[in-house]
Amino acid sequence: MAAASANREGYPEAATKGPLVIARVGFIGLGAMGEPMARSLRRAGFEVTACVHRRRDALERLRADGVAEAEDPASLAAGSEVVVLCVPDAPQVEEALFGPRGVEAGAARGLLVIDMSTISPVATRRFAQRLANREVEFVDAPVSGGPVRAADGTLTIMVGASLAAFERAKPVLCAMGLPHHLGPVGMGETVKLVNQIIIANVMIANVEGLVFAREAGADLGEVCAVLASATASNYVLEKWLPRTWLAGTFEGGFALDLLRKDLAAALDAAKVANLPMPATGLAYQLYTSRCAKGDGALDYSAIAKAYDCNSGA
Questions:
Q1: Collapsing DSSP states into helix, strand and coil, what is residue 113?
Q2: H helices of 31-133, where?
Q3: What is the domain partition of the chain in residue ranges?
């Protein structure tokens, strides 16, 4: 099946003209993000093969869209030009790549591996070196945008790779969003963790400030309206909290436990760099305390529950 060009307004010109060199893409990790990302690849015309990682139900839905099934990561890699991973953390990436029937076991020379998971850049560089020993290229390309933007193919994609590997990966990445080449392997994960550090701390600052306002008797709707044009304005306050905590729900969104995992990865990388990050360390402890209370699957705005407990709300 010939792959169609990933023709979307705003994508780099080089990625939108002419036939794609890559046609066969393997996908591992069909969770809340991976399933719509694999569907975007099919929509762009790629031949997509997937194997069960945790969820068979997602693969069954994708089969209706023309996604084929491989028995395991090794056989998936043997039949693909590119393998995309989108799994929870570094141990799952390592298992998928280097397990007994992992990608490495079926990889031919020249295979391109794109890891779209969010993990420590320390682990990313280690995996890249192990694959390089087999003449397999590695790209780290974590994403931002959540399941909604994964579904419509408009994710922000942060890429660490050699320039040559980025050019090879670009048509695949452009089918799922807008890729930004940020430097060598590990830099995509680094910039994604910058995003996670900021949103984790900004969420806490927003909640703390709004609880302070609420306990003083202020109308939160009016407070938010004023802050929207003040120096404290931010995306989480304007777009995220009105759909979650302020709407009386913590369902959906971005799981608190996943953010906690990302903060752990950031702290791991900071430790290697001998860089203290006290605010992020405190944020990690605050989110961990909510996970211990059973809130890990809730949206990360559930950190507000800690403040509600303190205020007696």
A1: strand
A2: 34-43, 56-63, 73-78, 90-98, 103-106, 121-132
A3: 13-183, 190-311
Q: Calculate mean pLDDT across residues 289-306.
A: 96
Give the confidence band of 67 by pLDDT, cuts at 50, 70, 90. Answer: very high
Over residues 275-297, the mean pLDDT reads 97
| DSSP annotation of 83 | E
Task: Tell me how far apart the alpha carbons of residues 58 and 62 are, in angstroms, rounded to a whole number.
Answer: 6
Give the pLDDT of residue 99. Answer: 95
In percent, the amount of the chain with pLDDT more than 90 equals: 87
Candidate list 17, 170, 192, 271, residue with the active-site label? 192
Instruction: Supply 69's token pair.
Output: 């099934």
The two tokens of residue 57 are 């139900």
170 is catalytic: no
3-class state of residue 284 by DSSP? helix
Query: What pLDDT was estimated at residue 222?
Result: 97
Distance, CA of 50 to CA of 272 (rounded, Å): 35
Contact 170, 12 (CB under 8 A): yes
pLDDT band at 21 (very low <50, low <70, confident <90, very high): low
pLDDT of residue 313: 66
**190-311: CATH number:** 1.10.1040.10
Give the Å distances, CA to CA, from 33 to 28, 38, 145, 275, 286: 11, 9, 10, 31, 25
List strand residue ranges (DSSP E) for the chain, in order: 24-28, 47-51, 68-69, 82-85, 112-115, 137-140, 143-144, 155-160, 177-183
Alpha carbon distance 220, 214 (integer Å): 7
What lies within 8 Å, CB to CB, of 240 at 6+ separation is: 203, 253, 301
Architecture field, domain 13-183: 3-Layer(aba) Sandwich (3.40)
